[in-house]
Amino acid sequence: MEFPEIDPVIFEIGPIALHWYGFMYLLGFLAAWGLGTYRAKKPHSDWTVEQVSDFLFYGFIGVILGGRIGYVLFYGLEFWADDPLYPFKIWEGGMSFHGGLLGVIVAGWYFARKTKKSFFDVGDFVAPLVPLGLMFGRIGNFINGELWGRQASADFPLAMRFPGDPEGLLRHPSQLYQAAFEGLLLFLIVWFYSQKPRPSKAVSGVFLVGYGVFRFGVEFFREPDAHLGKVISWLTMGQVLCVPMIAIGIYLVVKAYEQPEQQSNK
Asked: In 14-31, which positions are buried (b, 16+ CB within 10 angstroms) versus exposed (e)?
């Protein structure tokens, strides 16, 4: 199967161009805003619609700064060594989910202090809003023909050739696997789990475990970064970064159910 020809630019008006990748980021934040607003309007919620909008503003900054800094530290140190200005050249690409997650955690900590909420009240409210944004982001990667998968067998029905692949191999469309598992399926799990009152920390823990497990698995189909390859034995950098996520998530769930009187799903 050949990669479908998709123009990465939706439309251009003079010097202004709307790219599919940017549009997918926009859809992700709109989805988070819509879901968060729905939750905030539910009876007995201790969130307001204005607080949802405020958090998303801080979260957006956290995603951009954390995603870029994380990419440079986790994946691009050699590029930084060659070019001191590399961290600022966002237009050249390079964003890390794990870095973006750390950025959102910092944003959540700041927002919790500002609004006098507990950190996990914020985390448990925000966790179900994240996966659809991840889904849209991976669809954007697919449209851009980037972050493709490892070589697939010729008789695999989804195997395709990506235009930027210098080897011209049939590969797994791993971006779509990530959109399905780390995005849609994770959203369904965390969203429906959080529909009922849960102990504080539990929803955050389920999100971390779910993402970590799905990302770890999909990495077996995703082509490792060429300049890194496998970083520890057969593990990719993405898998290495998922291990502490899974461990922390399990710890949070266990601690949550040791203190079930602390309810959180507002």
From this structure: eeeeebbbeebbebbbeb
What is the rounded distance in angstroms from the CA atom of residue 231 to the CA atom of residue 225?
10
Nearest by Cα to 55 from 81, 37, 79, 77: 37
Q: Which helix (H) or strand (E) holds 71?
A: helix 49-74
Q: Which of 13-27, 42-56, 138-152, 171-185 has the lowest mean pLDDT?
A: 13-27
For the chain, the distance separating the N- and C-terminal CA atoms, rounded to the nearest angstrom, is 46
Bridge-based pairing of strands 198-199 and 263-264 is antiparallel
Give the rounded percent of residues in the chain with a pLDDT score beyond 90.
59
Domain ranges across the chain: 9-193
d(Cα 165, Cα 205) in Å, to the nearest integer?
37
3-state SS class at 7 = coil
Q: Report the C-alpha dihedral over residues 68, 69, 75, 77, rounded to 10 degrees.
A: 130
**Binding-site residue set:** 138
The whole-model pTM stands at 0.88
Q: How far apart are CA 167 and CA 34, in angstroms?
A: 42
**Span 64-80, pLDDT tens digits:** 888 888 878 877 777 77
